[in-house]
Amino acid sequence: MRLTSAVIVNLTEETWTLHRSYGTYRVRGCESGEPYALTRVEGRTANMDLGDKRNVEVPISAVEIAQDLCREINSDSGEESFLGVFVAAGEMPSNEELSRAREKLAAFYRRLVAGADREWERSHSYLFINDVERRAAHYLGLEKDWFYQAHETVECPGCGEKIKPGVAVCRTCGAILDRGKAASLGLAPPKRVTRGAVASKSGNSADAVRTN
Hints:
- With 212 residues, this protein is of the alpha+beta class.
- It contains 6 helices and 9 strands, in the order ββββββαβααββααα.
């Protein structure tokens, strides 16, 4: 029996490592700018123990392995979950396959976001929002109060409030965090530049300016 290859398509940035009885597999996620990621799976044989020191080799096709891996990944978030991986019918996914999978993923993510909205309304606690729900909001491009990521915020030196990087003025305490940006937005007066400072920037001291 000839064991052919199969292709797993991943629509997300998540990389999955799965340990199965027939081997360990890594299903890679999309890198920057990639619309999807492909992982090729080869067929193989597995040894079945029949007892009494008897073993038999059982061929497993690449499609069977790929489908098993996709089931494992997609079922990770409960009933009727879909996390964006599927087995392509050919060497490359068709536009129709991609369209169906993206619609299915978006529908599942919208359900997760709706559930997170209800939880947030009830508890207002980040502890009850899971990583998959945050991933869903990110994928859908949604800004949510509960979509908190520590690496996306900085601490205001004035009051300690968590704010986004690049903010010109803290909305909580009014501290000016970026004077140039704040001035361009009309939120703060421009920084006054003295004659001595101008001379210093040009590489001349104030005395040198006077003597030339």
